[in-house]
Specification:
Elongation Factor Tu (Ef-tu), domain 3; homodimer; two-stranded antiparallel ribbon; six-stranded antiparallel beta barrel; mainly beta
Chain lengths: 162, 162
């Protein structure tokens, strides 16, 4: 079974050649989404939400997908690919929660996300209080690594090299 | 640009012919995911998470996609499709946050979600505290409708007919 999707826009970030999370000088306005003009009307009322989900196609992969991954920052720990947010997955669909800063015409300015500039956008969904914000969520296996500091850098969008 | 994905499994629900959220008798164990055997190892450590994201292909659509949608329960309000969770979207990728109840072999038992039985699964991702649970999220335009009661039914998984 083949499932075919088409990009609805493009994500712009300061990550051109360097991998995301390598240090870059990022200013507000460096992260924005251009939705193709035919989808512009679909953005109506999007700016009433504090957060949105972005779904995108992770198109710059150069390694094989494997069912087990070893997050580089997690030491010797090996976990299943579906228990990870590794970009190397059977269907490379990326998911990020970002804040909406501004919607103007077909452009959405957002807070940072760790994708390469030019990443094809697949969908935008509102992130809805209670429905999506689960107060009793946990850190899963990440907590076992003790490296919540690294996770915090991702959460806060602090560039780092490991 | 064509982006091609393949199902990694199937979502099972009690919603066979009736639309999701029509009343059904649902018991614990009625919602489960079968991941195809070749992806079974990718589930390792998934059960360390309280919540997971499911991404799936919304394959049973019978209406045209439009840039503006009028959620039936929201009265006269018309919003952009990307400011809605309508299944009728340019790329019909569904996203649900569910609780993991049990992982056994290639089967994951979860709390309820509103998709038809047999829906093709595209990806599973861990829902990670802080990274995904945004305390300052809001209800966006939904709040304006005053119909937070309806939203609550979705959140609590209470079947309803409108």
């Amino acid at each position: 079974m083949h499932i075919v999707f088409h990009p609805i826009g493009v994500i712009h970030t300061p990550y051109h050649d360097k991998a995301p999370y390598q240090p870059v000088e990022a200013d507000e306005g460096d992260f924005f989404i251009e939705v193709f003009p035919e989808y512009r009307e679909g953005l109506q009322d999007l700016d009433t939400f504090t957060y949105i989900y972005l779904l995108y196609f992770i198109d710059r992969l150069n390694r094989e997908v494997s069912m087990k991954v070893e997050p580089v920052w997690a030491g010797e720990i090996e976990v299943g690919v579906f228990a990870s947010r590794s970009p190397l997955r059977p269907n490379p669909i990326g998911l990020s929660v970002v804040k909406v800063l501004k919607v103007e015409g077909n452009t959405i300015t957002t807070t940072g996300l760790d994708v390469f500039d030019g990443t094809p956008l697949l969908d935008i969904k509102p992130y809805i209080k209670d429905l999506d914000s689960k107060k009793d969520a946990n850190y899963g296996w990440v907590e076992k690594t003790g490296d919540l500091r690294h996770l915090a850098m991702h959460i806060l969008g602090i560039p780092h090299e490991y």
